[in-house]
Design goal:
The complex is a heterodimer of chains A (273) and B (270). Chain A has three helices and 18 strands. With 273 residues, chain A is mainly beta. In chain A, strand 3 (22-27), helix 1 (33-44) and strand 4 form a beta-alpha-beta unit. Chain A is elongated, with a radius of gyration of 22 Å. The two termini of chain A are 37 Å apart. Chain B is an alpha/beta fold and 270 residues long. In chain B, helix 1 packs across helix 12. Chain B has helices at 16-29, 46-49, 60-64, 70-73, 99-112, 126-133, 146-162, 164-168, 184-188, 195-202, 214-222, 233-245, 262-266, and strands at residues 3-8, 34-38, 75-76, 83-86, 115-119, 137-142, 174-182, 206-211. Chain B is 41% helix and 16% strand. The chains are: A mainly beta (273), B alpha/beta (270). The structure holds adenosine-5'-triphosphate and magnesium ion. Adenosine-5'-triphosphate binds at residues 9, 12-18, 40, 45, 121-122, 180-181, 210, 212-213, 216-217, 220, 234 of chain B.
Chain lengths: 273, 270
């Protein structure tokens, strides 16, 4: 989940981690920059401090025809004047990708249908976290209809040490214990209607709204959208061994009892046959 | 129809060979023609515990390599006329056991025996895979410690995915939890896992609990499986396990600490 570089003599000077951020996207509908400048100025005239060097991704899906020329230098300066920090592009054509790279911009995976004309241009995209995942498929796009598959993966047998289950592009429901040393992974939510003792990773392609639910929280590790927590010590009393839901709040994993009164309403879950 | 039972654990030294010897003997004592096979190529322990090591001429690998017939290699038990041992070979060749060879031996045994008990080596390598591959049922031998339970869990996962039954998509291998070297006292003090801790983690039906006992050491030194000495607790525990396996309802024993002092035990009382 993280790469740590260590030299023989000194302790690690850096660490590369996978993470996911919510980003602004500027969807350009015209390559005519003077026109863009005029409209931006009009739009932001009353609130000149609307942006505070927020990082922003430039979506070129409307202007990526081969003959369209885009002056990246001008565009970047323009955005900086309006206190925006362009960090990358998406949906550009080959020439645009090259030009963007030359101007120090990153290239985000092409995302279909994220910012269609007429849609509001202030939406979030989720960059897939670079976790050490065995799946090599393209990141799924939250909200993209092409990739939406409504099925759910349901597992009825115990998941045991050394086993791994991956629910690709869908939710995962497990009706039997997930034992220590087992790993369950989902692009969507994870529900475990039994003790969760192993590792659970939800929203692994960057879905920050994914959640993990379990009836008995004893996990070794939980992760949502690449933001993970190794659980080495006992969690608070109302969480450890209890019915719990886990969600992501910014960069923080939030653990909540499934039922708000779960401390005084202790349920005993008996899994013995 | 003959049944193949694998005795397996993942972890080493938990009591697989002891269990294989006693379980197979128990089946034979109940009147069933039984063969017990040593899959632990290179180590050869089963024949020692069964007290037939001096009579080993041919072994499992000789039969697989067509260097001996099954009849020549099977050793008849001294105590039970319907119990036979197929010893492992001393070879260090890890590939000596292969699916085709093992299958041929097991198919041939099935014609002549009611039960075929496979004593698995530790680990999850070739020998262990071969021992479990043709199993209809499995005794998962587990000690009351976390590393043993963890390895049993791993073996259960492999059994559910890699056995012949799993590969063919037919009814899965029937799993039985056998807890051995159990000390009620140490479970009570929390030094070791309790029966219910283990059951909760492994989540498979319990077939019995064998207590930690000196009788096992004496039995393996004398080469007569402990189950023959019915005055010992391990013998009774293994007998109960065999009965449960054969479908009888037998209450669980040896899981609670014996109450009362020395005198009470000496002069009777439950
Ligand atoms: N119930 C018991 N009480 C006391 N000692 C026992 C008991 N069962 C087994 N042992 C001892 O534990 C040791 C290992 O037993 P055994 O050889 O049966 O284990 P194994 O699982 O077959 O080992 P391996 O993995 O090496 O094949 C032996 O010394 C044996 O005497
Ligand atoms: Mg052994």
């Amino acid at each position: 989940m993280s790469i740590t570089k260590t030299t023989a003599a000194s302790p690690a000077a850096f660490e590369i981690k996978g993470s996911s951020f919510t980003l602004l996207v500027l969807c350009l509908k015209s390559s005519q920059l003077p026109e863009l400048e005029k409209q931006l100025q009009a739009h932001l005239a009353k609130t000149p401090d609307y942006f505070n060097f927020d990082p922003i991704v430039i979506d070129l899906c409307n202007i990526n025809q081969n003959d369209v020329k885009l002056d990246f230098k001008l565009l970047i300066n323009l955005l900086k004047q309006h206190k925006l920090a362009p960090i990358g592009i998406c949906n550009g054509n080959q020439n645009q990708v090259l030009a963007a790279q030359q101007h120090g911009l990153g290239i985000f995976a092409d995302i279909a249908g994220l910012t269609k004309p007429k849609e509001q241009n202030k939406r979030s995209i989720h960059s897939p976290s670079k976790k050490e995942s065995q799946d090599t498929s393209e990141p799924a796009t939250p909200g993209s209809k092409e990739n939406f598959r409504p099925q759910t993966k349901v597992i009825t047998q115990p998941i045991r040490t050394g086993q791994q289950i991956y629910a690709q592009d869908c939710d995962l429901i497990v009706l039997a214990p997930v034992n220590a040393g087992a790993e369950i992974i989902s692009d969507g939510n994870i529900h475990v209607y039994a003790p969760l003792r192993g590792r659970a990773l939800a929203g692994v392609k960057g879905n920050t709204s994914a959640r993990i639910f379990c009836l008995k929280m004893e996990a070794e590790l939980v992760s949502i959208a690449g933001c993970y927590r190794v659980i080495e010590e006992k969690l608070p009393e109302n969480i450890q061994g209890e019915g719990v839901q886990i969600s992501l709040d910014g960069e923080r994993l939030v653990f909540e009892p499934l039922l708000s009164n779960s401390t005084d309403n202790k349920r005993t879950v008996n899994w013995q046959k | 129809m003959a049944k193949v039972i694998v005795v397996t654990s993942g972890k080493g030294g938990v009591g697989k060979t002891t269990t294989s010897a006693n379980f197979a003997t128990g089946l034979a004592l109940n009147g069933h023609r039984t063969a017990v096979l040593d899959f632990d190529v290179g180590l050869r322990n089963l024949d020692l515990i069964m007290g037939c090591e001096r009579r080993v001429v041919y072994d499992f690998v000789n039969v697989i390599n067509h260097e001996a017939t099954l009849k020549q290699a099977l050793i008849k038990d001294k105590q039970c006329p319907n119990l036979f041992v197929l010893p492992a070979s001393q070879t260090r060749d890890k590939d000596a056991l292969h699916v085709e060879g093992v299958e041929r031996v097991i198919e041939e045994l099935k014609k002549d025996f009611d039960y075929i008990v496979c004593d698995s080596p530790a680990g999850i390598e070739k020998g262990a895979m071969m021992a479990m591959y043709f199993a209809d049922e499995a005794l998962i031998v587990t000690n009351p410690e976390i590393s043993s339970v963890r390895d049993s869990d791993r073996i259960l996962g492999i059994l559910a995915a890699k056995s012949k039954r799993a590969e063919m998509g037919i009814e899965p291998v029937k799993e039985h939890l056998l807890i051995t070297r159990y000390s009620p006292k140490r479970a009570e003090t929390g030094e070791m896992l309790s029966v219910s801790d283990i059951r909760e983690i492994l989540n498979i039906p319990l077939i019995g609990v064998v207590p930690e006992s000196e009788a096992i050491l004496q039995a393996s030194n004398s080469g007569i499986p402990a189950i023959h000495h019915q005055d010992s607790d391990v013998a009774q525990a293994y007998s109960d396990i065999v009965k449960r396996f054969l479908g009888e309802e037998v209450p669980l024993r040896f899981v609670n600490r014996q109450k009362g002092g020395f005198l009470k035990r000496l002069f009777g009382g439950a």
